Amino acid sequence: MALRKILEFPDPRLRTIAKPVETVDDSIRTLVDDMFETMYDAQGIGLAATQIDVHLRVVVIDLQDDEHEPLVMINPEFETLTKQIDEMQEGCLSVPGIYEVVKRPEHIRLKALDRDGNAYEMEATGLFAVCIQHECDHLNGKLFVDHLSNLKRSRIKSKLTKQKRVEATS
Fold it and tell me: 8, 37, 135, 167: which one is catalytic?
């Protein structure tokens, strides 16, 4: 297992649309292990391969609660099961230190492959559903800041760019 570098907004590589995984093999399982290690090290609850500059449709999630097990999602797809919209504060390892309220469907059905390539389906609500949608957005080159107004997104971009400049001169 190895820690990977997490790309940060506004890095253009975060806009890359991930390609489907053709075969779940040892290289994909190693990627999954690296992603879990990287996510835990960064104290996150979800990580998409796109965020570590690997443009394959792979996601790991661990809400770190008793209700949900760590989850591997390979080639995930979801469908909305309700018109009910949740508003929840979101953050992102690729947008460090920024938290904003985002609206997303409250109830979804996920279809994906596990780390061994076995297909599964499950329903999700609440934080679990939000996390799945957030990570699937990454695979499509989208970030949670894209759900915000242009003004908010511009301010966040400016703030993070300025932070990087200050860190580079320190």
Answer: 135
